[in-house]
């Protein structure tokens, strides 16, 4: 089930907890982007309508992500922060994307820059879900193109919208892991809620009279280390540079996708 209203259908109130569920077809509804027992789809739809209405009057600007890079003992750390003008559940889905919606730019062959190939639920425990995911990162270089397979284990929490991931297998990398957290951003609180600012979405809805837009604050960390044979200069410099640049490009794709979704 999609948390993004453009793709949402009706929710079955008697949802069975998936266990060892595999979706080779990413459009399958057996794998939840965000489990509907832990958010109110009707409220997300209302929040999205507020964004679309406001977008028609004055387009919202999402600033590019802030990326801080540090390298120590051959391990590269990326600390990333950015905001998007969409509800948190929608942004969370853009990261997991089990339905392979077109959030990332397509190449001339119609391939997304980052595609979800398959998702398998390994464990479900309340809001916590562990999934095995296969993605493909497309590349083009000097007229040649191909895909880099990425196999991840993702530990998701659909209640607090957090996730941690590790790689099960990835070309060129010895270490590839990270995390993300999506929090609500009460973008109209200064205008609608003074003098007492809200501490929750419930309080924000009350103080804004249901007219306050809810955006998203995203905090990410990504850690990677090239495989042993490649973790020597200058090859390691090249791999780090390409990985950092690719991460920034994917983040920019998400920023542009957010703008497009607000216009739907």
TrEMBL record:
Region (Disordered): 1-27
Pfam families reported in the protein's UniProt record: DUF220 (PF02713)
Residue ranges occupied by any DUF220 domain in the UniProt entry: 145-217
Origin superkingdom: Eukaryota
Bias type Basic and acidic residues, positions: 14-23
Name under which the protein is recorded: DUF220 domain-containing protein
């Amino acid at each position: 089930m999609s948390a993004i209203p453009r793709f949402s259908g009706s929710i079955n109130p008697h949802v069975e907890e998936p266990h060892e569920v595999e979706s080779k077809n990413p459009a399958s509804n057996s794998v939840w982007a965000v489990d509907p027992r832990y958010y109110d789809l009707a409220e997300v739809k209302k929040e999205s309508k507020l964004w679309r209405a406001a977008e028609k009057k004055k387009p919202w600007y999402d600033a590019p992500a802030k990326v801080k890079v540090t390298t120590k003992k051959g391990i590269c750390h990326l600390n990333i922060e950015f905001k998007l003008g969409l509800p948190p559940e929608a942004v969370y889905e853009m990261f997991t994307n089990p339905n392979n919606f077109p959030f990332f730019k397509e190449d001339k062959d119609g391939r997304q820059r980052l595609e979800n190939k398959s998702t398998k639920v390994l464990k479900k425990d309340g809001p916590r879900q562990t999934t095995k995911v296969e993605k493909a990162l497309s590349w083009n270089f000097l007229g040649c193109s191909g895909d880099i397979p990425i196999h991840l284990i993702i530990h998701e929490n659909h209640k607090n919208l957090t996730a941690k991931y590790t790689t099960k297998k990835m070309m060129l990398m010895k270490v590839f892991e990270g995390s993300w957290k999506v929090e609500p951003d009460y973008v109209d609180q200064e205008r609608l809620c003074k003098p007492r600012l809200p501490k929750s979405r419930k309080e924000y809805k009350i103080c804004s009279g249901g007219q306050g837009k809810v955006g998203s604050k995203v905090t990410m960390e990504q850690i990677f280390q090239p495989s042993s044979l490649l973790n020597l200069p200058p090859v390691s410099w090249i791999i780090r540079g390409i990985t950092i640049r690719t991460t920034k490009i994917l983040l920019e794709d998400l920023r542009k996708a957010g703008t497009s979704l607000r216009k739907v």
